[in-house]
């Protein structure tokens, strides 16, 4: 995502997100981490206390949301599959997630029931 964060700050952010003893977070924790990181990229401090406000997510951060969506949409088809989510999470250090966990994460956001997350579903999730 083009952000740099110290190991110490990452640990604080993981604690804030509700990471369990294995360092895993649930979907809501992921949203917390994402929003915190987006707050930093839009002028927030590195203290881990800044969260992008909803109005920023709706307006000025739209391009950042699209960029984040593209990170997960590896094949560029406009949809995030459970496999793409699994691969992306692994690439950023969330090794403990099983594909079945990612299927369940997708189901929580998949409002049209197609088994994938499109950009509008991704955007709604981030609000």
Automatic annotation (TrEMBL):
InterPro entries: EF-hand-dom_pair (IPR011992), EF_Hand_1_Ca_BS (IPR018247), EF_hand_dom (IPR002048), EF_hand_pair_protein_CML-like (IPR039647). Residues 60-95, 97-127 form the EF-hand domain. Gene3D superfamilies: EF-hand. Transmembrane segments: none annotated. Keywords: Calcium, Metal-binding, Repeat. PANTHER family: EF-HAND CALCIUM-BINDING DOMAIN CONTAINING PROTEIN. This is EF-hand domain-containing protein. The lineage of its organism: Eukaryota, Viridiplantae, Streptophyta, Embryophyta, Tracheophyta.
């Amino acid at each position: 995502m083009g952000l740099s964060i110290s190991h110490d700050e990452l640990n604080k952010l993981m604690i804030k997100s509700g990471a369990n003893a294995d360092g895993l977070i649930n979907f809501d924790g992921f949203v917390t981490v994402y929003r915190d990181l987006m707050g930093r990229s839009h002028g927030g401090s590195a203290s881990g206390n800044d969260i992008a406000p909803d109005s920023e997510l709706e307006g000025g951060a739209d391009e950042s949301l699209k960029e984040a969506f593209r990170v997960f949409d590896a094949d560029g088809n406009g949809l995030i599959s459970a496999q793409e989510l699994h691969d992306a999470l692994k690439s950023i250090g969330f090794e403990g997630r099983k594909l079945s966990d990612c299927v369940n994460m997708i189901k929580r956001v998949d409002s049209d029931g197609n088994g994938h997350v499109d950009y509008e579903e991704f955007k709604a999730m981030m609000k």
